Amino acid sequence: MVEEKGVYIYANLLDLNEDGKIDMISFLDPQGRGIAVAVDRASDGDMDHIHVFQDVTGDGKLDMDDTRLIEREALKLFRQEGLEEGQLKLFVEDGAYG
């Protein structure tokens, strides 16, 4: 049996200004603890703010590698057409909890 390398995270997709576009994503670990929050105030598919609270690269420290990983995942979601509010379960191959 081949063991998967990576982690599952949950993305809560929110449309705070009710314009039909996702403008905030809160990321959670499987235990429901906050990983990060990403915000797109202009609803243009680009993040205005990102706050990372937890090591998701597995190196034992909270650093720019964690920010880049969350930014990558958030941008993929913000740029998807037709996303609606709700929760998604995402598998991040290069992620690990530190």
Q: Which labels suit this protein?
A:
98 residues; alpha+beta; 1 helix
Q: What distance separates the N and C termini?
A: 25 Å
Based on secondary structure, the structural category is alpha+beta
Mean pLDDT: 91
Characterize the biggest β-sheet.
5 strands, antiparallel
Tell me the series of helices and strands, N- to C-terminal: EEEEHE
Low-pLDDT stretches = none
Give Rg in angstroms: 13 Å
What percentage of the residues does DSSP assign to strands (E)?
Answer: 25-35%
Gross morphology: globular
Please bin the fraction of helical residues: 10-25%
Assembly state here? Answer: single chain
Number of self-contained structural domains: 1
Number of helices: 1
* Widest beta sheet: strand line-up: 4-3-2-1-5
State the total count of DSSP E strands: 5
Task: Report what the structure shows.
It contains one helix and five strands. The chain is of the alpha+beta class. It has one domain. The chain has a five-stranded antiparallel β-sheet with strand order 4-3-2-1-5, covered by helices on one side. The mean pLDDT is 91.
Q: What's a concise summary of this model?
A:
With 98 residues, the chain is of the alpha+beta class. Helices cover 15% and strands 31% of the residues.
Topology, element by element:
Blueprint: E1 7-14, E2 24-28, E3 34-39, E4 49-52, H1 64-78, E5 86-92
Antiparallel strand pairs: 1-2, 1-5, 2-3, 3-4
